[in-house]
Amino acid sequence: MAACPSKRQMMSEAINLAVIGGGQMGRALVSGMLAADVVQGDHVRLVDRNPASKQWWATNHPEVVITDLPAAVSDSDVVLLAVKPHGMESVAKQKGRFWNKKLVMSVAAGVSLGSLGQWIGHERVVRVMPNTPCLVGLGACGYCVPEGFPDADIAIVEAMLGAVGISVKVLEKQMDAVTGVSGSGPAYVFLMIEAMADGGVKAGLPRPLAMQLATQTVMGAAKMVAETGRHPGELKDSVASPGGTTIAALATLEHNGFRSAVIEAVAAAANRSRELGG
Ligand SMILES: NC(=O)C1=CN([C@@H]2O[C@H](COP(=O)(O)OP(=O)(O)OC[C@H]3O[C@@H](n4cnc5c(N)ncnc54)[C@H](O)[C@@H]3O)[C@@H](O)[C@H]2O)C=CC1
Ligand SMILES: O=C(O)[C@@H]1CCC=N1
């Protein structure tokens, strides 16, 4: 295995990052990392086969160099693979000396460390499940690494992911569940915000005001759970006055299976992640 730079070196030296696939997740991660200054734009090489996607990068991050895969990987310390799961094999199997034991981070749902290592031809690979709030520095990333993975590389991974939110090292067998909770999770919360705003509009509020109130409510509630250390059930009870408005709403949510719908949604995403892994 190639000698790896120390965490101190990585923190003080610019990371040369190749990004293969600059779609939704690639954009969220790299935009977040650029904003957090953990990578610099002129040290990022972007590869994408979609002209519209390349145009997005040219417009939004003009300092990023748009190039092809061999050049991007050759010029990098770290390679971020962010194409769809079914496209990962053809990208990772591209033959060439340019892979040369680069640190490769894949964000593809379901794609195992074993497959990645086999396709790329070495085991300096990390499987990450990020989420789109990395864009605003509030991502939740789970990642796993092969046995014997060097601490210096873990330090690099944590420096990069930690710059855009929290990062937790998990067992590979937990990655599908991580996908169900946090990888896909933002979509459930966006749906909730949209639905709450719809409810506000139904009750007579103008749409922008309903959206503002719903968004701030979700943000405030999440912050209370994170910062008070109190159980969400206890916080929920503290909102519900006897005979009041909240318990009327909660009874309706329970009647309509809200809790089990969310539990089953997380399980469905985890199962789908397992299927994608083949
Ligand atoms: N969107 C999300 O919230 C999350 C996505 N992921 C994972 O991130 C990966 C990417 O997903 P999205 O960004 O949502 O998809 P996307 O479709 O928005 O982006 C994929 C990009 O890869 C490009 N691409 C495809 N084949 C390529 C190739 N051979 N060479 C270069 N570029 C190529 C496409 O043109 C596209 O711009 C997937 O594997 C997904 O499982 C993981 C966590 C969350
Ligand atoms: O929907 C998907 O497959 C990807 C993986 C996790 C979130 N988005």
From TrEMBL:
Q: What keywords would UniProt list here? A: Amino-acid biosynthesis, Cytoplasm, NADP, Oxidoreductase, Proline biosynthesis
Biological process terms in GO annotation: L-proline biosynthetic process
List GO terms (cellular component aspect): cytoplasm
What is catalyzed by this enzyme? L-proline + NAD(+) = (S)-1-pyrroline-5-carboxylate + NADH + 2 H(+); L-proline + NADP(+) = (S)-1-pyrroline-5-carboxylate + NADPH + 2 H(+)
Q: Which InterPro entries match?
A: 6-PGluconate_DH-like_C_sf, NAD(P)-bd_dom_sf, P5C_Rdtase_cat_N, P5CR-like_CS, P5CR_dimer, Pyrroline-COOH_reductase
Say yes or no: keyword Oxidoreductase present.
yes
**Which residues participate in NADP(+) binding?**
20-25, 82-85
Chain ranges of the Pyrroline-5-carboxylate reductase dimerisation domain:
172-276
Tell me the pathway.
Amino-acid biosynthesis; L-proline biosynthesis; L-proline from L-glutamate 5-semialdehyde: step 1/1
Record-level Gene Ontology MF annotations: pyrroline-5-carboxylate reductase activity
Q: What is this protein called?
A: Pyrroline-5-carboxylate reductase
Q: Which organism is it from?
A: Rubripirellula lacrimiformis
